[in-house]
Each structure stands twice: as structure tokens, then as C-alpha cells.
Amino acid sequence: MSRSIISGMGFYVPDNIVTNQDLEKLMETNDEWITERTGIKERRWVIPGEDSTSGMGFKAAKMAIENAGISKDEIDFIIFATLSPDYYFPGPGVTIQEALDLPPIGALDIRNQCSGFVYGLSIADQYIRTGMYKNILVIGSELHSGGLDKTTRGRGVSVIFGDGAGAAVVCATEDENRGILSTHLHAEGKHAKELALLSPATSRWVDTIMKEHDPSDISYYPHMNGNFVFKHAVTRFPEVIMEALQQNGYTPQDIDMLIPHQANLRISQFVQRTMKLNDDQVYNNIQRYGNTTAASIPIALTEALNEGKIKKGDLVCLAAFGSGFTWASALIRW
Ligand code: COA
pLDDT tens digit string along 73-128? Predict the structure, then answer.
């Protein structure tokens, strides 16, 4: 049976840097509060109209294909993870298929928020193990900035999220010493509304919202119960990392690099302390990009690779937690 390896990574973030000081001009907030609570110093926000979720995903995908050293025409399936699609439907998977000028291969859109990239990787891994596909493009891309409440009312959410995209080319290999060892997926829908965007929705279409025209209606902005999310995240991250390690007979000390979803630097530091990991075993870049949801792991993984922090043969763990709640991990022998 074939194994899956990540043979190329890529990422793209918009040029427009928005610092904490820039946010002070939009809402009552300050650098000290944001840095202390989240670790974030700046994020990238698309200049309105200048890019899209699929547009950023396309640029990340091109880099990943180039780094994989294959021709785009060898891609035989696309998986696109996002919570901020260009349109309500169709999802951006088909836009990528068109933008890359590919033959009519399949394109799957998945909606698993912060866990989206790891869920996508898991799907790719299963298709490759069964022999159905050989080269799968997995993309995570988010354009949050257009949908945030950038006033003091929305500051608990809007200071955290940034725009960007990351992509991986997942390929079949017969090398038994490398590849994705296992993936682990979880969900707990009873907490769905603790981190959610409730409108517009099939239960509440735009015309209802327009008719009501209620400026105090915040259901069309993302809502987050921050404290509640934090408490669950710091439990679920170590749990799902340990699940992956135990299944493969490893301990936290065996991890060469943990790439946690960049939710909040305090969450990553808490997980690091709980698992007794050294600084050089964990990669964080939320300081520069904020939380880019489905894009955060592939962006961080690409940067860690570019900085030479992951070498062939390393044990790499990806772990995510977010809206749903959903959480997931993947253990990879690089
Ligand atoms: N700037 C300044 N003050 C702010 C603020 C901001 N951007 N956002 C909220 N505040 C204020 C609140 O209004 C509140 O004021 P009050 O005490 O006068 O009522 C105070 O700061 C504390 O708010 P609270 O929400 O309790 O802060 P917190 O310590 O829980 O931190 C989060 C908020 C969101 C940073 C934190 O809960 C968190 O990181 N949660 C996890 C979120 C996450 O990782 N989400 C992504 C998951 S994938």
C-alpha cells in the first residue's frame, strides 16, 4: 500500500501589514492588551477588492506545486479548506481547478474551520493509501478581514484574525520510512455556537436581515466565547497530540517539530509547557500573521521548512483546534 508524503509546501499572505497600533485607530484597543492576551503584533489584511480566498489559495498552490517539483497537470485531486469562501456556493475548490487550468479533476471543499487543513490532509492521505489518487493539492485559505466587526464592539474577535493561504502537494510514495503515519479527527457539535458566524444562513437569509435592518444585529459577525474556547483548546491540543504519539509508539520527547494551529500564542505556550517541549520543538508565527484559521498550519509549516527547522527524517506533528468544536492531529515522518 502506498504511503503519503508532503512533497511541496507554499504560502501567500497579502502585502498589507496591519499592526496593533493601526488597530488602535479603528477601535478602543492597545498593543499591550493584544500582545499580552494573544502574542499577536501584526497581521495581514487584504486591501478590499484586491484579492480573494481563492486568489490567495491559488498563489500558495502555485508555490507548493513548484516546490514539489511536479507539473500542475500531474495533480489529480483538489481539497480546499476554508470558512471564508469567495461565494456561499460553489466552494473555492472549483475556482482553483479553473485558475490552474486543470482538466476536470475532482475538487472537494471542506468546512472544518481551524482544523480544516488537518482534516484535508487526512482525506488526501486516505485517497492515496487506497490508490485512488497520486498527487493531491490541499489548500487552506482565509480572507477574514472583510467580515470582521472592526469597531470596539467587535474587538474581542477582530484583533485576532488575519488573512492568508497555505498549500501542500501530497504525493504517493512506496518509501516505508517516510510519510504521514496517522491522522486523528474529532468534533463536538454541542459547542458549535461558541465560535461561529450565524448569518446569513438558510435559517436567516439576507432579505430577512435587510428587512429588519437592525444595526445592533451582530449575528452577521463572527462570535467567539473566548474564555470557553481557550479552556477547551488547552485540553484538546495535548489530548490529540498524545493520541497521535501513542498510536505510533512515541512520546512528546520524540517530536522534532510541533506545528500547532496558530490560534493564540498563549494557547501554544500552554500546550508546550503541558507537554514539556523545548522551544526548538514548537514553531509559532502568530506574532506576524494573527490567526489565519485553515491557513495557519500550512503557512507555519512552509516557514519552518524554509528556515531549515524541519529536515528529512524528522518527526513532525500537526495539531489543530477550533470552531465546531473540531480538533485534529497528523503525525508525519518527514
Ligand atoms: N482590546 C482591549 N480590550 C479588550 C479587547 C481588545 N481587543 N477585547 C476585549 N477586551 C476587554 C473586554 O471588553 C473585557 O473588558 P471588561 O473586563 O471591562 O469587561 C476585558 O478586555 C477582558 O475580556 P475577556 O474576553 O475576558 O479577555 P480574555 O482574557 O478572555 O482574552 C481572548 C480574550 C479572546 C484573547 C482569549 O479569551 C482567548 O485567546 N481565547 C481563545 C481564542 C482563540 O484562540 N480563538 C481561536 C480559536 S481557533
Answer: 999 999 999 999 999 999 999 999 999 999 999 999 999 999 999 999 999 999 99
149, 230, 267, 270: residue to mutate for ligand 1 pocket, most atoms within 8 A of CB: 230
The answer to whether 171 is a known catalytic residue is: no
In a domain? residue 207? no
Same domain for 154 and 126 = yes
CB 200 within 8 A of CB 206: yes
Q: What domain range is 309 assigned to? A: 179-188+229-333
> 238 and 148, same structural domain?
no
Residues with CB under 6 A from ligand 1: 29, 33-34, 37-38, 114, 155-156, 159, 224, 226-227, 229-230, 233, 263-264, 267, 291, 322
Alpha carbons 11 and 141: distance in angstroms, whole number:
9
Count of structural domains, the chain: 2
Last residue of one domain, picked from the residues 173, 206, 238: 173
Same-domain status, 295 and 323: yes
- Helices and strands per DSSP (H, E), number in the chain: 11, 13
206 pLDDT above the threshold of 80: no
d(CA 260, CA 30): 26
Ligand 1 centre distance from Cα of residue 34 (Å): 9
Q: Is 261 a catalytic residue?
A: yes
If you average pLDDT over residues 17-41, what whole number do you get?
A: 98
Distance from C-alpha of 282 to C-alpha of 280, rounded to nearest angstrom? 6
Indicate if 131 and 184 belong to the same structural domain: no
Same-domain status, 167 and 265: no
Residue 96 neighbours by CB under 8 Å, 6+ apart? 54, 57, 58, 61, 78, 80, 107, 137, 139
Same domain flag for 145 and 233? no
Contact 3, 179 (CB under 8 A): yes
CATH of the domain at 289: 3.40.47.10
How close is the Cα of 226 to the center of ligand 1, in Å? 6
Question: Is the overall model pTM greater than 0.90, yes or no?
Answer: yes
